[in-house]
């Protein structure tokens, strides 16, 4: 049985350590720590919505998403997190040929396996710094291609013009471009494929990451292809997203995410510089809010266990296809947490 476990399992580790989840320093999930305090407070006013069903397939929230990104409501489908959409897409393409670029987000393979897709892997190579060179790929062989942009866990982004080139060259292949971490880029607007009009392009977005609200479980997909959107929605529960999540989602769309992106980017730059000064690791430059690290002298289980003793959680990458037990991934959180992490990490590396 393949291991498709994720980071961010604070409940499990809190139980193991006999502490509260909030006592942990969770650098294992790529969720912004900068939650909008005003909106968090306002959520209390939304409890009254529990007495109503949410709108059918969240059409109130869909309308707001469409307005925000200047697209049409029938080009948007919501999901219980982006996760539900990945699952539905795989269901829609069951038994068909798909392409995945490891190391990447493991749910593409997870749901492709569950729905018996014919999975093909094109590995990003360590010696190429995990950059994607796809000039030699004949995409016409695949009906479905997952592209994580920026890629989790490598943090690398692919330019919009490069993406558009392949999408336009292979009209019979559906390209799913997962932009869950794109809002962490300062130049997000120049990079996004939201609003780009190709029938064979589907863009995924998550409310979990940039808004720091993974618990509300909201994500959405955009495609010019309203037929495809409708098809994906057919497999959603009509009221899968709760009425309170729908209300919070509408409010979150008003947040200026550029401010959050800038704040995290500044912390990341300083953190990266400090990591570069440590012996025994290689750090991969990242375009987004997490960093992939190769351990040159220790293995990931050892490092993770030592960090856990100080209540720090990082992502063990040993179950990510294309990586092994020499890789960990660190998410960028508040500056003081990163300072504390560096101190402990240096001790662990020298231990
Ligand atoms: C690349 C990527 N896509 C999608 C998801 C799923 O996010 P959610 O279901 O919370 O929207 C994750 C979560 O880690 C992710 O890393």
Automatic annotation (TrEMBL):
Top-level EC class: transferase
Keywords, ordered alphabetically: Aminotransferase, Transferase
Cofactor requirement: pyridoxal 5'-phosphate
Enzyme Commission (EC) number: 2.6.1.-
Keyword Nucleus: no
Gene Ontology molecular function, alphabetical: pyridoxal phosphate binding; transaminase activity
InterPro entries xrefs: Aminotransferase_I/II_large, NHTrfase_class1_PyrdxlP-BS, PyrdxlP-dep_Trfase, PyrdxlP-dep_Trfase_major, PyrdxlP-dep_Trfase_small
Domain Aminotransferase class I/classII large: from-to ranges: 23-344
Annotated Pfam families: Aminotran_1_2
PANTHER family for the chain: HISTIDINOL-PHOSPHATE AMINOTRANSFERASE-RELATED
Family classification: Belongs to the class-I pyridoxal-phosphate-dependent aminotransferase family.
UniProt name for this protein: Aminotransferase
Organism annotation: Deferribacter autotrophicus
């Amino acid at each position: 049985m393949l291991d498709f476990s994720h980071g961010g399992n604070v409940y499990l580790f809190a139980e193991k350590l006999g502490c509260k989840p909030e006592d942990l320093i969770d650098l294992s999930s790529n969720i912004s720590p900068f939650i909008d305090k005003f909106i968090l407070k306002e959520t209390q006013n939304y409890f009254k919505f529990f007495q109503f069903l949410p709108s059918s397939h969240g059409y109130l929230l869909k309308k707001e998403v469409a307005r925000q990104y200047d697209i049409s409501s029938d080009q948007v489908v919501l999901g219980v997190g982006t996760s539900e959409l990945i699952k539905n897409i795989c269901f829609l393409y069951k038994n068909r040929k798909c392409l995945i670029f490891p190391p990447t987000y493991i749910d593409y393979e997870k749901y492709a396996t569950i729905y018996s897709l014919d999975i093909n892997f094109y590995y990003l190579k360590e010696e190429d710094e995990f950059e994607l060179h796809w000039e030699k790929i004949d995409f016409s062989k695949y009906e479905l291609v997952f592209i994580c942009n920026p890629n989790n866990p490598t943090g690398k982004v692919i330019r919009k013009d490069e993406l558009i080139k392949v999408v336009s060259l292979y009209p019979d292949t559906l390209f799913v471009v997962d932009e869950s971490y794109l809002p962490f880029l300062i130049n997000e607007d120049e990079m996004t494929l939201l609003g780009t009009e190709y029938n064979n392009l589907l863009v995924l977005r998550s409310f979990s990451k940039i808004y720091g609200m993974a618990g509300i479980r909201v994500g959405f997909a955009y495609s010019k292809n309203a037929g495809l959107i409708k098809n994906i929605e057919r497999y959603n529960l009509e009221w899968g997203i709760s009425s309170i999540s729908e209300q919070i989602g509408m409010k979150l769309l008003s947040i200026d995410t550029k401010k959050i992106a800038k704040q995290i980017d500044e912390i990341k730059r300083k953190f990266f510089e400090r990591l570069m000064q440590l012996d025994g690791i290689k750090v991969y430059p990242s375009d987004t809010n997490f960093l992939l690290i190769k351990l040159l002298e220790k293995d990931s289980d050892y490092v993770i266990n030592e960090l856990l003793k100080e209540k720090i959680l990082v992502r063990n990458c040993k179950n990510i296809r294309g990586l092994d037990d020499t890789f960990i991934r660190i998410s960028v959180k508040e500056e003081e947490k990163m300072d504390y992490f560096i101190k402990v990490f240096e001790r662990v590396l020298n231990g």
